[in-house]
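hey can u check if this looks right to u? its 221 residues, i copy pasted from the old doc so theres a chance i mangled smth
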Amino acid sequence: MIEVLTEADGVRLVETATEHQYYLNDKKIPGCTSIIQGCGISDLSGIPRFILDKKSALGNAVHEYTHWWDENDLDLNDLKPFPDYYNRTLGWTQFREDWNYKPHATEIVLAIRVNGMTFGVKPDSLGTGNFGTNGEPWLATVEKKCTVDIEPAHEIQTAAQALALKADCPIPARIIVQLLPEPDKLGKYYHMQECKEPSDERVFLSALAIETYKRNRKIIR
């Protein structure tokens, strides 16, 4: 059984320079990313802090600009002097046009309870695009990435996000949009990858079960 909870149900996310923590009725719950990192699928320990901070700042800015564009609150020409942001934001506009993608919700804070286990997640975008087998509209979670590579952890992340859509679509599309600093051979500033590995959800739920066990046994807090 899957239950999706929103801010109206007491879900909140505290994001500061030192904290990224989800709460449900003021009780801490684990976040999707920390669960994936905790089981070893994603390991950033070997990357210097200053590089992580730089990449995070770029990603946060691009997420913000693409969100403003979705809200019709951004003139793309204003970003032209800043190609790191302009090119990637342009890639998002191309993706939306090419796949007829229509966002329904952007970066909403959710708690998902599945089989009695609860975690927090903030999907980049939930919406509908022409992702069906014959190009028909299909409900999807769309994850934006500014990374050089799409990693297995990113695909697991989309499986966690897609749980929020299963009441309306038993098999939601899981899309990663890699926003590029330079155009590809077709002049596109994005690369789209659909995540189709059915074991991704099982892997995440296994990681969630381990995380929940550790918290219940006070191994971690």
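The chain has one domain: 2-216.
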